[in-house]
Structure formats: structure tokens, C-alpha cells
Amino acid sequence: MKPRDRLRIAMQKSGRLTEPALELLSRCGLTFRQSRDKLFCFGEGEPVDLLLVRDDDIPGLIAQGVCDLGIVGRNVLGEYQLTAGREGAALSEWRPLGFGRCRLSIAVPQELDYHDAVQLNGQRIATSYPGLLGEWLRTRGVQAGVVTLAGSVEIAPRLGTADAICDLVQSGGTLVANQLRETEVLLESEAVLAGPQTLPADERGDLIELLLKRLDGVIQVRE
Ligand code: ATP
Ligand code: ZN
């Protein structure tokens, strides 16, 4: 691939992280002209462009070198780091960004008298995060079945396809609506700036350093 002289940042095209990510970048002095197809946003001042994609694709795009950085939930980055082998291990979290806060938690049917993780032994847990859940179960020495679902995880216990779930929780409203109760927090998540372990050794590396400096200023002011 031809080396790029512009920095490319992957972010969510449409979802919870889109507006706050754009706002953060604009506070860092970056402005963009949106292209017609809305996949690509051309940076107007600095040579920094955006690629607008599904959040799940962001870690892979960085690992493959299609993008230099990404703004993505720690939950999505962490899952990729655990499940994508060497490509996953090549990524790291550069900065927490302070928005998109949620938790990856285990929830069980409200009527269950849950008091310890050992109760999950032999149970089936539905999740979209088999990597993060699997690691947590291993460190606890719990042997549970992991049922991987792409979405609508919270209805699995009612359907009888799982006994518990491991899913993202923010207010807890979805859990209550599905007669579930949060019992264990596996991960405290928020949007993060994700990138490769090492800076590219060209102008893009300098641009990333500049961006990090501005980000640190903006995040400090906000705190
Ligand atoms: P995409 O179409 O990009 O795949 P999505 O449906 O996977 O979108 P969103 O629901 O927009 O993603 O959530 C994006 C991120 O927002 C999550 O990965 C998570 O980090 C964060 N988040 C914050 N609160 C919640 C919540 N209550 N439920 C789900 N995600 C949340
Ligand atoms: Zn997604």
C-alpha cells in the first residue's frame, strides 16, 4: 500500500458515539467537509480525514492499517484485542475520552437469588462479547456455556436460550423491562482513542502527537 501523508481516523457512522466524537474533534480544532456518500470526511485545516463506519469494524481497520486511529468503545476494542490474535494484540487504548460511558455486566432473572459467581457454573450465558466474558469466567474459575448472539441478548432468558446474559448496561432500564437484574460488572467502558502500539515513523506520527496534545488539553479543560 502506498504510504499516506494524511492521517485517517475511523469513527462510528451513526450511533451513540457519533455526535460526541465529532464534537470532541472539533474542539481539537479539526473541521471536516462531509462527502456525498458519507463514508469519508475530508479534513479542511489539518491533513486529518475521517472514515465513517460501523463501530465493530473500527479495530480491524486500524489493525489492517486502513486507518491510523479510531474512536470506539472500550468494550469493542477489548473484545477485538482478546479475539483477533496477533492483530488484536497489536492495538492499544491511547486515551479514555469521557463519553459513551456504560458497563459490560452480567444480569440474571430477577427472581434468582444470586450472591456469587460460582452460581453461574453449568449455566448458559448469552452475550455479544464472548472474548471478554470468556476471560472473566476463566479468571473466576467458572465453567459456563457462552451463547454468542449478535443482538437482542436481553431477551434470551425469556426465550429459554440462555439462563443469564452479559451485555452493555447504562441506566439499567432495558434490564428491568426484561425482568433481569445486574449482578456483576465485568468492564467499565467509555469511548477511547484506539491506535497501534507504536506510532508510524512518518509525518502521521507527528500528526498523532499533535492531536494527542490537543486532546489532552481539551479533556483536561472538560474535567
Ligand atoms: P453500529 O451500527 O455502529 O454497529 P451499534 O448499535 O453497535 O452501532 P451503539 O448502540 O451506537 O452501537 O453503541 C455504540 C457504543 O456506545 C457501544 O459499543 C458502547 O461502547 C457505548 N454505549 C454506551 N451506552 C450504551 C448502551 N446503553 N447500550 C449500548 N452501547 C452503549
Ligand atoms: Zn456495532
From TrEMBL:
Organism this protein belongs to: Dyella halodurans
Keywords: Amino-acid biosynthesis, ATP-binding, Cytoplasm, Glycosyltransferase, Histidine biosynthesis, Magnesium, Metal-binding, Nucleotide-binding, Transferase
Keyword Nucleus on entry: no
Protein name per the record: ATP phosphoribosyltransferase
Pathway named in the protein's UniProt entry: Amino-acid biosynthesis; L-histidine biosynthesis; L-histidine from 5-phospho-alpha-D-ribose 1-diphosphate: step 1/9
Function as written in the Swiss-Prot or TrEMBL entry: Catalyzes the condensation of ATP and 5-phosphoribose 1-diphosphate to form N'-(5'-phosphoribosyl)-ATP (PR-ATP). Has a crucial role in the pathway because the rate of histidine biosynthesis seems to be controlled primarily by regulation of HisG enzymatic activity.
Gene encoding the protein: hisG
Similarity section: Belongs to the ATP phosphoribosyltransferase family. Long subfamily.
Keyword ATP-binding: yes
Subcellular location: Cytoplasm
